[in-house]
Amino acid sequence: MRLLIVLLVLFGISSCHTNEGNIPDGGYYYPDSFSDKDTLVFFYPLKDSMSSKDSFELSMYTTLLFGSFEEPNLSLAPPEKPLYRMVYIPSIIGNTTIITLHEHMLEVKEIKQGGPTPWVDTENLDSLEREHLHILESYFPIEKYEGKIWTKNYLDSLAKASPELLDVNYYRNLVESNRVVFDDIFAYNKRKVPLTKEQYSDLVNLIDKSGYWKMRPSISCPAAPMDGDTYIFEAATKHKYNFVEYHAECNDNPSDFLLLIREIMRISGVEESEEKFREDFFEKRRKGEL
User: Fold this and answer.
1) What pLDDT, on a 0 to 100 scale, did the predictor assign at position 226?
2) Rounded-to-integer distance, Cα 90 and Cα 8, Å
3) Residue-wise pLDDT tens digits, 179-195
4) Is residue 51 predicted with pLDDT exceeding 90?
5) How many CB atoms lie within 10 A of CB 287?
6) Where are the domains of the chain?
7) What is the pLDDT of residues 103-127, one digit of tens each?
8) Burial track 117-129 (b if 16+ CB lie within 10 A, e otherwise)
């Protein structure tokens, strides 16, 4: 009888931590080792599975974004406890927000002033550099282009005339030299939303059942991101890491993953604060204050 009680207690304890112990079917294993420069790649296990263009552009953006919000790199090593981080990027009107799901709370970081990433002003470039930037934004890496033959011939001729187009550091310098910071120094507010054990468990179960662990790293569509909000969703568990960039308007019908996103937005209070922000924005514009 005593043995049965012990077994039941042990079973009960283990069943409360199934999300920590289970190895997800999907996602990516953490690297065995990494260098100092790799700490700036916020999706390190995925970098070789993405196209060179996607990896390069996403690396530059996430380094600026997470650096501004003072966020850690979750992709290099497992945390002590599972962490799930979601970045909300509004299409046009709204505030970029980071929501992190911890075991007992949601941590919410919202913009107070300024912007987390610089905006672009190509006036800092000369006419040839602007032309090169446009080409690289469209076709990088140009030596791997496999589309129409006349376009490939055109790109090959450009590369012969300007071999710097083949250098990723040249592209990086073009992008960095036309950044213009916001007038206001960037600052953010941080708040915490307490969660019960049931709420936390329900959210983790929603993540696991939504198909998230088997989703492609980037789910896009022709209309995104201008016509729809974008979400970056990361999971860092004991055994695996995952990263998905998701454009909400790509699906006509809400997926289980989109329903998960909406639930996190609701519980965190971000949904309500964004509605208030838009109302205030349009009211100020109506009064001619913007």
Assistant:
1) 46
2) 48
3) 655 556 889 999 999 99
4) no
5) 8
6) 61-109+188-286, 122-179
7) 999 999 998 887 777 666 677 778 8
8) bbeeeeeeeeeeb
Residue whose C-alpha is closest to residue 30's, from 241, 242, 271, 210: 241
* Burial group, residue 289, by CB count within 10 angstroms (0-12, 13-18, 19+): exposed
Half-sphere CA count of 108, side-chain side, radius 13 A = 22
Q: What's the full length of the chain, in residues?
A: 290
Q: Which of 171, 185, 109, 101 is nearest to 139 (CA)?
A: 171
Q: Strand 105-113 relative to strand 187-194: parallel, antiparallel, unpaired?
A: antiparallel
Bridge-based pairing state of the strands 28-29 and 218-219: unpaired
Place of tokens 């083949």: 166
How distant is the alpha carbon of residue 63 from its chain centre?
Answer: 10
Q: How far is CA 25 from CA 85, 194, 257, 290, in A?
A: 19, 29, 16, 49
Alpha-carbon gap, residue 246 to 243, rounded angstroms:
10
Is CATH 3.40.720 correct for 61-109+188-286? no
Residue with tokens 């129409």: 148
pTM (predicted TM-score): 0.74
Answer with the residue of higher pLDDT: 90 or 199.
199
Cis peptide bond prior to 79, omega within 30° of 0 = no
CA dihedral 129, 132, 133, 139 (to 10 degrees): -170
